[in-house]
Write a structure and sequence with these properties.
Blueprint (H helix, E strand, L loop, with lengths): L3 H15 L6 E4 L12 H5 L6 E5 L2 E6 L3 E6 L5 E6 L22 E6 L3 E6 L6 E5 L2 H8 L13 H8 L6 H6 L9 H11 L12 H30 L6 H4 L21 E6 L2 E6 L5
Antiparallel strand pairs: 1-6, 2-3, 3-4, 4-8, 5-7, 6-7, 9-10
This protein binds zinc ion (ZN).
């Protein structure tokens, strides 16, 4: 599932490529995504100029005139591809975590611009497109997703209030979109490694120092991943980049039974299931 850093990178790619471009035509080849693509979709977007592209949590927002918007969510397996009309076999994938070239199957939505096309591919179809017609509607949509991990509202006071007397463990808190939006399963394990916190530690047992670290390292881990993602994109353009490089950056994720990477720690990385999600942590330095 795309995590916040990946979505941020897709957003930046879109910002560089399609900002101020006018959509000349829209094609929908399969309306059955997570939510059905509404019938007015093509007419609503045709001839609209994309004035801005922003991100909120794991949603990408296309901005149009008169407070019209289109929200895009990549679901589990969604990717956006930009096809140059003259050179359609070039690397097309804006998210670079998957195949570089647009697959033949599972292309559901296509936006045409004067010089290129933007294609949405999604084998499992958990992604969606949602049209929004006012600022009020946009704000209402995002209300449940506040605060996101990088918002200033995700701070010590907020954690104190939310974690007080709670017996839910911190790993589940980080994945709970009502607590904080935008942290996925991979980065939840990574953040807790940096915090030196055991993922099973209960909310009520976290002290001020622990909470400060959670805020600090949530920012640190996500920002680092965004930066790393940005440079991976550049590698890709030089044709030699490999997806594996990104994976090597993880401290605990998918490192079961390997030695802890922290200096002076003799611990081993363990894998456990919490709420059916793989969770990785060091059995020595995460307490
Ligand atoms: Zn360790």
């Amino acid at each position: 599932m795309p995590e916040l850093p990946e979505v941020e990178i897709v957003k930046r790619s879109l910002f560089n490529k399609v900002k101020n471009q006018k959509i000349s035509k829209v094609g929908v080849f399969n309306r059955s995504l997570r939510y059905r693509i509404e019938d007015r979709f093509e007419d609503f977007l045709k001839n609209q100029k994309i004035l801005n592209i922003t991100r909120k949590s794991k949603f990408i927002i296309l901005h149009f005139l008169n407070d019209n918007y289109c929200i895009i969510h990549l679901g589990m397996t969604g990717t956006l591809h930009l096809l140059d009309n003259k050179n359609p076999n070039k690397n097309t994938n804006l998210s670079f975590y998957h195949s570089k070239i647009l697959p033949k199957k599972h292309n559901h939505v296509e936006f045409n611009f004067s010089k290129f096309s933007l294609v949405y591919n999604d084998p499992r179809r958990f992604g969606f497109f949602k049209l929004i017609k006012s600022k009020y509607e946009l704000d209402s949509f995002f209300k449940p997703f506040y605060p996101e991990a990088l918002d200033s509202g995700f701070n010590l006071n907020y954690l104190k209030k939310k974690l007080k007397n709670k017996s839910k463990n911190i790993k589940n808190f980080l994945l709970d979109q009502n607590f904080v939006s935008g942290i996925g399963n991979i980065y939840a394990s990574e953040i807790l490694y940096y915090c030196k916190l055991n993922p099973l530690k209960k909310g009520k047992n976290l002290n001020i120092k622990n909470m400060k670290r959670i805020v600090k390292y949530t920012h640190f881990v996500l920002i680092k991943a965004i930066k790393r993602g940005g440079s991976t994109i550049k590698d890709f353009k030089n044709a030699k980049g490999s997806i594996g490089n990104f994976q090597k950056e993880f401290k605990v994720y998918e490192r079961k039974n390997l030695k802890c990477l922290r200096k002076n720690c003799d611990g081993i990385i363990k894998k456990i299931n919490i709420n059916n999600r793989s969770t990785f942590y060091c059995n020595n330095c995460q307490k």
